[in-house]
């Protein structure tokens, strides 16, 4: 076997073949990614989300977008399920853990988002969406006095309204400003991601895929690829993934690639 | 413990027929209705509704609404609903009131179990096509809104574990927040809306040990400030819900100015839960049985219904 794998082994002056360290490192990482996909896929979605939430909390601010992603892209009952699983797994509620672990300005927003149990019907009151777009507009204008994500009214709107309602608010906002809400919120990334996940999930998925498949992608970005493909059951992720399929085939290697593409294709059936 | 008395043998089919007969013709045989519905639990009542619909192609609730009236009708209507649906209706009625305070909403959010609260939120979606949190958001503002939305959205851990160190430190946080009426509401809301009930009770105990008196006694009772009033109800419900219900009954059972709404609500919502314990507390506190007070302050079929749910054989 060794004679065929010259990339992995090299001969030294004693004519002893030993592992090429870098090659080994890559192999281990590849298999770890493979393991991650398999383990995540086999878990019950509720347990999966509960564990992802716990890990994100532990890892700190760079991973808070995972909390936003789960709270905002799951259906109401899926999010509820994750909260139930969290109780069983960790003997605390997710709200308690967020409150204990996060002291900064993101806390209010994150607690509110995980608690939501949004109505899922299509009814939308247009008058309310107009006035709420105005509320957001004013909050963004006053960003020098206070961060938008610390504004109680903004947090309220984003955590209690249904997704169809919020999509309409997003549209109404464009009548008030020549930029979209997300364009105005570049400074408050977490809030921007919240609105993307709720109103324009494809934008969020596209960015995550794009970042993960770049040459300089870091570990967190690459893990996001696994997470999105395995945990997103909806059609929106699949549509975005289809655009990136060629890139995935090129950049991702080995067993990890096979299982990832397999999971992607499986859902298409 | 529950107070309703369910007979060992009965037939759902016969129950539906009995109720039908009671509604037929001129007038209504209210006693027959009470005799059946007052002695069936939530699952059985649901089955009776279904059986009635299968037999007579009519919604039993709509029929009863037509036949009955007044406090009795309201009591029967609310009694026959699924507990989660009932609480959703009670929450909605409370929110539609023009007052700024919503003690019934706090009562529901704080005395139901975490799972029950989830069912109530689901029932609210189904009935009113919006989420309970949206409704609360629309009808309240400021710190009261923060507190109420937090209370109704809470999904508290249901376990027995208590972290004593945390209880002590949060008791201190609460003390800091409420002394001098400064009310750092964010801290108070954070504690009251995320901790498990066991943890909160430990916190309230630590507060009492450290301050020498209970936290509810130290809250300034400023009738105008709805945030404080809401806080007060929340703390009392979370600390000792049975004591809270006893007080609601005590305040509502007056010869003049009986609050039928409150009496109906407490008796109906606790009859299958812990009304027996509340009865015992009532007796101790008022030196008379709850049934006697209900007998004195209410009348007619409404009274008979309540007594039935309290466990009396008519």
From TrEMBL, chain A:
Record bears the keyword Cytoplasm: no
InterPro entries: Annexin_repeat, Annexin_sf
Name this protein carries in UniProt: Annexin
SUPFAM superfamilies cross-referenced by the UniProt entry: Annexin
Record keywords, A-Z: Annexin, Repeat
Organism: Hibiscus sabdariffa
Keyword Zinc: no
Automatic annotation (TrEMBL), chain B:
Xref: PROSITE patterns: ANNEXIN_1 (PS00223), ANNEXIN_2 (PS51897)
Coiled coil regions, renumbered to chain: none
Pfam families: Annexin
SUPFAM superfamilies in the record: Annexin
InterPro entries to which the protein is assigned, alphabetical: Annexin, Annexin_repeat, Annexin_repeat_CS, Annexin_sf, AnnexinD_plant
Alphabetical UniProt keywords: Annexin, Calcium, Calcium/phospholipid-binding, Metal-binding, Repeat
Domain of life: Eukaryota
Record flagged with keyword Metal-binding: yes
Entry remark concerning the domains of this protein: A pair of annexin repeats may form one binding site for calcium and phospholipid.
PANTHER family: ANNEXIN (PTHR10502:SF204)
Annotated family: Belongs to the annexin family.
Protein name: Annexin
């Amino acid at each position: 076997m060794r004679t065929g794998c010259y990339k992995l082994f090299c001969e030294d002056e004693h004519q002893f073949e030993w592992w090429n360290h870098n090659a080994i490192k890559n192999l281990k990482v590849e298999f770890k990614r493979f393991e991650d996909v398999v383990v995540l896929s086999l878990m019950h979605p509720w347990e999966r989300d509960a564990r992802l939430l716990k890990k994100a909390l532990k890892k700190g601010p760079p991973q808070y977008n995972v909390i936003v992603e789960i709270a905002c892209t799951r259906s109401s009952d899926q999010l509820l399920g994750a909260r139930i699983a969290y109780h069983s797994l960790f003997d605390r509620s997710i709200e308690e853990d967020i409150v204990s672990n996060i002291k900064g300005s993101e806390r209010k927003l994150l607690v509110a988002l995980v608690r939501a149990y949004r109505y899922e019907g299509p009814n939308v009151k247009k008058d309310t969406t107009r006035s709420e777009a105005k509320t957001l507009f004013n909050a963004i204008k006053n960003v020098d006095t206070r961060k938008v994500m610390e504004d109680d009214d903004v947090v309220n709107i984003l955590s209690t309204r249904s997704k169809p309602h919020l999509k309409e608010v997003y549209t109404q906002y464009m009548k008030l400003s020549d930029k979209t809400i997300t364009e105005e919120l570049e400074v408050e990334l977490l809030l921007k991601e919240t609105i993307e996940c709720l109103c324009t999930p494809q934008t969020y998925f596209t960015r995550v895929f794009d970042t993960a498949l770049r040459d300089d992608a870091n570990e967190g970005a690459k893990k996001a690829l696994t997470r999105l493909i395995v945990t997103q059951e909806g059609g929106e992720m699949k549509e975005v993934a289809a655009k990136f399929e060629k890139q995935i085939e090129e950049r991702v290697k080995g067993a990890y690639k096979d299982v990832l593409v397999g999971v992607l294709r499986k859902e298409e059936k | 413990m529950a107070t309703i008395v369910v007979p060992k043998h009965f037939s759902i089919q016969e129950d539906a027929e009995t109720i039908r007969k009671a509604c037929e013709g001129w007038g209504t045989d209210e006693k027959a209705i009470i005799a059946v519905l007052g002695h069936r639990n939530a699952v059985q009542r649901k089955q009776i509704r279904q059986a009635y619909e299968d037999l007579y192609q009519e919604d039993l609730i709509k029929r009863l609404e037509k036949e009955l009236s007044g406090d009795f009708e309201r009591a029967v209507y609310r009694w026959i609903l699924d507990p989660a649906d009932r609480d959703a209706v009670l929450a909605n009625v409370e929110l539609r009131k023009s007052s700024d305070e919503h003690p019934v909403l706090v009562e529901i959010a704080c005395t139901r179990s975490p799972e029950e609260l989830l069912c109530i939120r689901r029932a609210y979606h189904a009935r009113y096509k919006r989420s309970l949190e949206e409704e609360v958001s629309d009808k309240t503002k400021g710190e009261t809104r923060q507190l109420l939305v937090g209370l109704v959205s809470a999904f508290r851990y249901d376990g027995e574990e208590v972290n004593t160190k945390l209880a002590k430190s949060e008791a201190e946080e609460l003390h800091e927040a409420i002394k001098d009426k400064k009310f750092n509401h964010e801290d108070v809301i954070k504690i009251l809306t995320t901790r498990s009930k066991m943890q909160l009770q430990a916190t309230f105990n630590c507060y009492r040990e450290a301050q020498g008196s209970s936290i509810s006694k130290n809250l300034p009772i400023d009738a105008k400030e709805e945030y404080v009033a809401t806080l007060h109800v929340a703390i009392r419900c979370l600390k000792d819900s049975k004591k809270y219900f006893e007080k609601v009954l005590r305040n509502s059972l007056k010869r003049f100015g009986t609050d039928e709404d409150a009496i109906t609500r407490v008796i109906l919502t606790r009859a299958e839960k812990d009304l027996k314990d509340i009865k015992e507390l009532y007796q101790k506190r008022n030196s008379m049985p709850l049934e006697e007070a209900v007998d004195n302050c209410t009348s007619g079929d409404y009274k008979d219904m309540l007594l039935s749910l309290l466990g009396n054989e008519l």
